[in-house]
Design goal:
Blueprint lengths: L4 E6 L4 H10 L5 E7 L9 H4 L10 H4 L14 E4 L3 H13 L3 E4 L15 H4 L5 H9 L5 E4 L9 H11 L1 E10 L11 H4 L10 H12 L2 E2 L4 E2 L4 E8 L6 E9 L5 H9 L14 E3 L8 H4 L8 E8 L5 E7 L3 H17 L4
Parallel strand pairs: 1-2, 1-3, 3-4, 4-5, 6-9, 11-12
Antiparallel strand pairs: 6-10, 7-8, 10-13, 12-13
Helix pairs in contact: 1-12
The structure holds NADP nicotinamide-adenine-dinucleotide phosphate.
Length: 346
Amino acid sequence: MSRKYRVGILGATGTVGQRFVQLLENHPQFEITALAASDRSAGKPFSEACAWKLAGAMPESVKSIVVEAIAPPLDCDFVFSSLPSSVARETEEAFARAGFPVISNSSAYRMDADIPLLIPEINFEHLGLIEVQKRKRGFEKGFIITNPNCAIMSFAPPLAALDRKFGVESVFVTTLQAISGAGYPGVSAFDITENVLPYIAGEEPKVETEAQKILGKFNGETVEKSDFIVSAQCFRVNVIDGHTASVRVKLKQTSTLEGVMEAMRNFPSLKLYSSPEKFIDICDEPSRPQPRLDRDNGKGMTITVGRLFPDNIFDYRFVGLSHNTVRGAAGAAILNAELLIDKRIL
Ligand code: NAP
């Protein structure tokens, strides 16, 4: 067994940071050697700085690690970043410039032309942007890669399956997003209890633009974005984990329902450590997917699709569901790191 990569986590005390800590416990390729967060946490052991909010105990191995400030260098080979975008831009660049690969979960760099926005099963060839980025930004050993917005993960995979086979012309999506998507303490109980909030700051533009880059083609220098239009409305709902997307899609080329189903069902998963057996799982039960029942499908890494039918206005409609802090955040970034190892970039 080759050596484990030493990992730092920026934003380690937060909702996504804690999920990184949980998913990296006993990971065969990675060990956590550095944790960093805000001035409120720096200087304290992780056990004291972090109010652990996940099921199960905080892993013993991280309890005594002293949280550091979010500035390079850290004692690690690369960093995962789960910082708020307000601080991510400057900090992630500083780490990349200091020679650290940055595997980011923040939105700060996702749409920059030279930054890969990755879902490994869909677009690993976008990794070619790393060389472009190094050249343009003058990074030597360091670089930045990103994973998509958590709501996108609930429907970009089935969309990719349809786009590859039939071409996608337009998409109408309504997202029902979990409370944990807002971080901790996030939305107040007073606001969300017995309620649905029809506004998530900054979310709709992300949902309307990221999929075209993810499904775009890398031409050796840049990603030519796909040309379909997305219209999105994003809601916060009273669910702890698991983002749901209600999707209607118009295709460029017509298909039978069976053809659409097969395209999704046959979209292959990868063979990386965190890859689920099924990338997209189609459930037949009329009342599924549901966040509480289906978010942990494939250890939180599978996208569950249901309610797939012809639509009266668009061609087809379906409901997609994914775990927002696993496939939509920490799990996605860890899969990206595994991809970098697989492609011998790390
Ligand atoms: P969170 O629970 O609010 O955690 C934020 C983390 O960043 C904490 O560790 C916090 O440290 C640290 N931090 C905050 N302000 C800082 C500052 N000025 N300087 C240094 N560190 C600072 O947020 P989150 O939900 O984990 O989200 C983190 C990032 O992931 C965001 O960019 C978010 O958009 C993205 N994201 C989140 C989800 C999700 O489902 N939650 C999904 C996809 C992407 P302290 O504890 O010391 O304050």
